């Protein structure tokens, strides 16, 4: 009977080094890469009126980070209904714009009934690969703008909130990339064991006039939790983060 295939010590060393390199790539001067989420609107924007809302990702680290096509910056954004309306002819998303990467988006078909409270008006996927400079090293803020049209005043204006779920991909080396480095296919179990215990060192946080804090990996930030930092000097109209 032939012996069972084994993962060689050489292959294990290559795998170990690849995971170590992945961790090192997401650190800055020995500290984790720090990314912060903010929400912005034009000056004096008011709830329920036509305007743009911005989701902002800021690199707080002192190092420039390059997001790759394999592990890009990915941000999922849900535009959800906050108030209840009995009509279907209400404000729409007029466009989604960014000069940082690409975006896809779709709007809910309203049909004969309005979107219920908590229902999704639109879904946006933002993907960016490239360099995001560190603090003090260039433009360290990536933005995506979401345009809202004006609803028919006589029929009521919708108010929406933004639910943002960021990620940077798995950030871990793929088994395919390790095979290209000469790792044996018999090492899949060893690779999976390493993958199961590896976590991305990226630290996500958020800040705004209503609150600041850290965001757990894979968690979703509600714009009503942080509020947004632009709507007049006193943030009079939009500290609830609703648009």
Q: How would you describe the overall organization of this protein?
A:
With 243 residues, the chain is of the alpha+beta class. The protein has four helices and 15 strands. The protein has one domain (9-226).
List keywords for this structure.
disordered C terminus; 4 helices; 243 residues; alpha+beta; six-stranded mixed beta sheet; five-stranded antiparallel beta sheet; 15% helix
Indicate the topology.
Layout: H1 9-25, E1 27-28, E2 31-32, E3 34-40, E4 51-59, E5 65-67, E6 73-81, E7 93-97, E8 102-107, E9 120-128, E10 130-132, E11 141-148, E12 160-167, H2 175-180, H3 188-197, E13 203-206, E14 213-215, E15 221-222, H4 223-226
Parallel strand pairs: 3-13
Antiparallel strand pairs: 1-2, 3-4, 4-11, 5-10, 6-9, 6-12, 7-11, 8-9, 12-15, 13-14
Q: Cα distance, first to last residue?
A: 69 Å
Shape: elongated
Q: In terms of per-residue confidence, which ranges show pLDDT below 50 for 5 or more consecutive residues?
A: 231-241
Helical residue percent band: 10-25%
Radius of gyration: 22 Å
Count of structural domains: 1
Number of helices: 4
Q: State the order of secondary-structure elements, H for helix, E for strand.
A: HEEEEEEEEEEEEHHEEEH
Q: Strand share of the residues? A: 25-35%
In a nutshell, what does this entry contain?
By secondary structure, the protein is of the alpha+beta class.
